[in-house]
Amino acid sequence: MEGWMTERADFMQNEPLAYRMRPRNIDEIAGQKHIIGEGTALYRMIKNGHVPSMLLYGRPGVGKTSLAHAIAGTSGLPFIALNATVSGKKDVERVVDEARVTGKVILFLDEIHRFNKLQQDALLPHVENGSIVLIGATTENPFHDVNPAIRSRCGEILQLKGLEAGDIDELIRRALSDEDRGLGRMAIQITDEQISRLAEGAGGDARKALTLLESAVLASDEEDGTTTVEDAVIKSLIGRSGVFGDKNGSHFYNLLSALQKSVRGSDADAAVFYLAHLLESGDLTAVCRRLLVMAYEDIGLANPDVGAHVLAATQSAERLGMPEARIPLSVAVIEMCLSEKSNSAYRAFDAAAALIHAGDTGDIPQHLKDAHYAGAAALGHTGYKYPHDTPLGEFGGWTSQQYLPDKVADERFYEPVIAGKEKKMAGIYKKLKQFMKKP
């Protein structure tokens, strides 16, 4: 028992399990088969001794750092890791000096989107001549947040995906059996169902999965030299493990995009799923703002009442706060999903704006210009017909007169969508255009 307690104490003081279990070569990488699977171009290049400079893009825990270490392990090249948030020009100069001595090094630069100009100036020539192989990692969209000078020198921009539960299951079992780096020297009793729960609870994050495993082992009771992992411990750990979603990061905006596209595609299940993910990420204001935009951009004239409904829902949500805010917002999202849809109004505006930006659009007709002052008649601001003076059936006041400038009088910006309430509006629009053509 005393020996076991000593071993367990030593284990608790070691480096984290997720750090120890990093892959040593590209054959040990779990998942990411679309990037580094056997037979891919990158896999063959690295196996043949060529490592290109590259950018690795993906959310935390998908294996960016692990992939860089594995590439270095396979290639045998010297490996230097820096973080752009804390590294300065002198750190870059040390990497350059190392490259001069060894001939070639791999520089892994985490948070590369924070790279400043001085660091770039010191490093870029050496990346260009091949003495430094740059592997940059970022959670932000590299096309938005990484400097063009860096992007142009990286032949590969690789988007890593969250791991599948099967990949994480494999990682957990590898950690449990590895006696050198993992938990293989410990007597651990854990069921297949518990491993599956840990794999699914990690949400595609390898680092989180191994951290959950390590925490579950350390939080469970030990008896007669054997640690029996407890269901209650796993439930507790997964329940408070959090949801990925930096409200200032690319992933958050990807979630907003997925929500809007799911609503536009009328998939209520997907829309509610992304709404839940966004609200768990914590930026209620951004979610409410996007929902209001969607009500007018995607539902529009087909169901104009939705705009007022969504406004009421978002105002209620902001007054209630979380977790109650989820209730009116879920109502608004499902109503939008199942409503008729039209984007005709904002497309009409965009068409008009494009014509305006293109150049000369002509002068406002004289009869539409301001005439509420003495002397307006002398300037020719006359001839306006007041529509309310001439009723048209049940429509109200209408009279035929030109409103667009002469130069664009024949332009048509509004193209009705025959859906929902806009169907009636489209009929009125067509009739009025016909009336205007009559003498």
UniProtKB/TrEMBL annotation:
Give GO terms: molecular function aspect only.
ATP binding; ATP hydrolysis activity; DNA binding; enzyme activator activity; single-stranded DNA helicase activity
An example GO biological process term is: DNA synthesis involved in DNA repair
What are the alphabetically sorted keywords of the record?
Answer: ATP-binding, Nucleotide-binding
Specify the domain of life of the species encoding this protein: Bacteria
Sequence ranges assigned to domain AAA+ ATPase in this UniProt record: 50-163
Matching entries from Pfam families are given as: AAA, AAA_assoc_2, MgsA_C
Query: Matching InterPro entries, A to Z?
Result: AAA+_ATPase, AAA_assoc_2, AAA_ATPase_RarA/MGS1/WRNIP1, ATPase_AAA_core, DNA_pol3_clamp-load_cplx_C, MgsA_C, P-loop_NTPase
Similarity comment: Belongs to the AAA ATPase family. RarA/MGS1/WRNIP1 subfamily.
Q: What is this protein called?
A: Replication-associated recombination protein A
Q: Which organism is it from?
A: Bhargavaea cecembensis DSE10
- Source taxonomy lineage? Bacteria, Bacillati, Bacillota, Bacilli, Bacillales
Supply the gene name: rarA
